[in-house]
């Protein structure tokens, strides 16, 4: 069998994998997540006042300042909490069952070398005339004690929902990758649709996220835990947020930024191809390091 560990990973979900229960769980996670955000944002508005609150939201939506990026990453905490709550309340199991056995070790075995590789290859990015200095190194390092845990929380929240909850629930009902891999990845991709930022090119981030989701699901099914997917996701986001970011898009703590017209297919195309290639290489390296 191609995915021998899929059975053990989805076993905790098998007793309560009815489609209605899974659909209710997804709706529950979404409702709790948005309700928590609504509550927190209203509290912030009351404390900060309209003008200051508008500035905070603007920075948070674009992630264009250190504070804004930190707030954006922190906004995923309610998503992780919602996934944990729904898993317990609706399925009667601990949220740690979404991780699988051995997740922590696999995370380190993937995240550390892939992040190190991104650091080692960064000088090649600096040869690009469209890449320039952005945030001072001292500022980035000063924010790292807070930003790195928040990045881990953001990555963890998305993986718990898409490669944890959804993959387990759907994989418990069907062994077909079209069900447990493609469907959650399609939803993951659609949530990355950003026409305001990319205009007619908005489909490409969707396809990128869909492909990433499939690769993360593949690693999860091959290893029987979320560790490799978490490591791949962490290393990818670390490189894109803290090393060489896209100007105006979550670049508040980027050492360097790529300045291009994201609505111009000709300008964006080569970088898209490079990103897809880097993602495929990272996925293959993760498999090589874990021997799966």
Order of helices and strands: HHHHHHEHHHHHEEH
Tell me, rounded to a whole number, the average pLDDT. Answer: 95
Contiguous low-pLDDT stretches (5 residues minimum) are none
Overall helicity: over 70%
Radius of gyration: 19 Å
Describe the protein in words.
73% of the residues lie in helices and 3% in strands. It is built from 12 helices and 3 strands, in the order ααααααβαααααββα. With 292 residues, it is mainly alpha-helical. Helix 2 packs antiparallel against helix 7, helix 3 (50-62) packs across helix 4 (66-74) and helix 7 (137-171) packs antiparallel against helix 8 (177-190). The two termini are 13 Å apart. The protein has one domain. It has a 3-stranded mixed beta sheet. It has helices spanning 6-10, 19-48, 50-62, 66-74, 77-91, 103-125, 137-171, 177-190, 195-198, 203-223, 227-243, 265-290; strands spanning 131-133, 244-246, 256-258.
In short:
The protein is mainly alpha-helical and 292 residues long. The protein has twelve helices and three strands; from the N terminus they run ααααααβαααααββα.
What's the layout of helices and strands?
Layout: H1 6-10, H2 19-48, H3 50-62, H4 66-74, H5 77-91, H6 103-125, E1 131-133, H7 137-171, H8 177-190, H9 195-198, H10 203-223, H11 227-243, E2 244-246, E3 256-258, H12 265-290
Parallel strand pairs: 2-3
Antiparallel strand pairs: 1-3
């Amino acid at each position: 069998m191609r995915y021998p560990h899929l059975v053990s990973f989805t076993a905790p979900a098998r007793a309560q994998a009815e489609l209605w229960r899974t659909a209710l769980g997804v709706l529950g996670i979404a409702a709790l997540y948005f309700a928590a955000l609504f509550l927190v944002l209203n509290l912030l508005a009351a404390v900060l006042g309209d003008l200051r609150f508008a500035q905070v939201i603007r920075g948070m939506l674009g992630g264009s300042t250190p504070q804004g990026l930190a707030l954006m990453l922190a906004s995923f905490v309610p998503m992780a909490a919602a996934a944990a709550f729904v898993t317990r309340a609706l399925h009667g199991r601990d949220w740690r069952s979404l991780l699988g056995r051995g997740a922590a070790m696999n995370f380190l075995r993937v995240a550390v070398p892939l992040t190190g590789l991104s650091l080692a290859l960064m000088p090649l990015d600096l040869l690009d005339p469209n890449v320039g200095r952005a945030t001072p190194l001292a500022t980035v390092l000063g924010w790292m004690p807070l930003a790195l845990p928040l990045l881990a929380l953001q990555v963890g929240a998305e993986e718990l929902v898409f490669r944890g909850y959804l993959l387990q629930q759907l994989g418990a009902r069907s062994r077909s990758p079209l069900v447990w891999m493609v469907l959650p990845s399609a939803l993951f991709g659609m949530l990355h649709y950003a026409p305001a930022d990319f205009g007619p090119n908005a489909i490409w981030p969707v396809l990128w996220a869909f492909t990433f989701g499939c690769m993360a699901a593949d690693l999860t099914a091959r290893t029987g835990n979320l560790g490799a997917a978490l490591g791949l996701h962490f290393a990818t986001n670390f490189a894109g947020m803290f090393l060489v970011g896209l100007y105006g898009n979550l670049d508040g703590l980027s050492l360097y930024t790529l300045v291009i017209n994201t609505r111009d297919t000709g300008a964006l195309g080569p970088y898209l191809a490079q990103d897809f290639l880097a993602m495929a290489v990272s996925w293959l390296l993760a498999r090589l390091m874990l021997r799966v």
